[in-house]
Amino acid sequence: MLNVTHQLKKKLFLTDLDERESPTSTRKVLNNQDVSSSSASTSEPQSKGHKSLPSLPSPEEEESMNLSIARKRSPSNSTPLPAKAYGPYFLEYTLMAEYNQLRSKRLPGVYVLPAAKSPLVWYGVIFIRMGSYQDGAFKFTMTVPDNYPDGECPKLVFKPPIFHPVVNIETGELDVKRAFPKWRRSVNHLWQVLLYTRRIFYKIDTRDPLNPEAANLYENDKETFKQKVNECLRTCHNELHIPVDDDPHCIHFVELEPQKIDEVKETILESQSKPGKLPTANAHKSGLSWMKKGSSDIFTIEQS
C-alpha cells in the first residue's frame, strides 16, 4: 500500500469519481470549483483559482503505469502483479459510502456489520415479524466482488441454509441475480440487495425456484410448507449462538444472565422518563422499545 495521507487518498478517490462518472461536457474539481466545458477552446484562459483535471490515460498507458508501480512494490526477483494503482482506495471509499448509505436507510429488522478482516465481507442478521416466516431470525454473510462496483452482483448466503423457494437448500445462497440480473454501477447499491433479502420473506416468488420442493409446497400444500418452515426456524434459532466465522465482527448471540436482563430493562425504563432525548418519532425504525415496570409487556409512547 502506498504511504499517503488521508487527504491524498480522498483526493484520489474524488478525482477518479469525477473522471468516471461526470459527463464529458462538464466536470468538477475539488473545493466545488467548476471548470470550463470540454467543448470550449483550449486556448481560452482559465479563470483564477480553477484547475483542469488530467485526462484519463489510455488502456496502454494505464497498464504501463500499473506495472511501474507494481515493480516498485515487488522484490526485484519476483514478477509484479498488474493491479490497478487506484483500486484499493477507490474500493475502500466506495464501500464506506455504501455502508453509510445503508445506515441512513434504516431497513427494519436488518442488522449488518462489515468484517474486521476484510471490507468485502459483511455479516448480518434479519428478523421477520409477519407472514409465513414470522419470528424468524436468520444470519447471513454478504460477499462483495473485489472489482466492485464494476463486477457481478454481491453474493448473499444464509447460515444455516433456510427453506425458501429462492434459496439453495444445500449452500444457503440466495438467488440475488433474480433481482439484479446485471449489476449496474451507480444505479444498484448494497442496501438494495439487503432490501430484496428482506422482501423475499414477505412476497414469496416461486418462479424458476432454486428449491423446487419449497416452491411446490408453497403453491400446493401450505400446511406442509409451514411445517418445513417451522423446522427451519427452530434450526436457525438453535444456531444463533454459533459464529459462522472466526472474524471478531461476526454476529452471534449470547444468552443474557438474569442480572444483565434486569440492567438492560432498568436502562430502558430510565430512558423512557426522558423522552425528549430519544428519537421517539421513529421509534419503530430506531430499534427502541419499552416495557412496563414489573412485567415484560412491550409498549410504545403515543405521539401527539
Automatic annotation (TrEMBL):
Bias kind Polar residues: ranges: 23-35
One Pfam family matching this protein: UQ_con
PROSITE patterns reported for this sequence: UBC_2
UBC core domain boundaries: 90-238
Region of interest (Disordered), residue spans: 14-80
InterPro entries hit by this protein: Ub_conjugating_enzyme (IPR050113), UBC (IPR000608), UBQ-conjugating_enzyme/RWD (IPR016135)
Biased amino acid composition, Low complexity: 36-46
PANTHER family, A to Z: UBIQUITIN-CONJUGATING ENZYME E2 (PTHR24067)
Protein name: Protein AKTIP homolog
Gene source species: Actinia tenebrosa
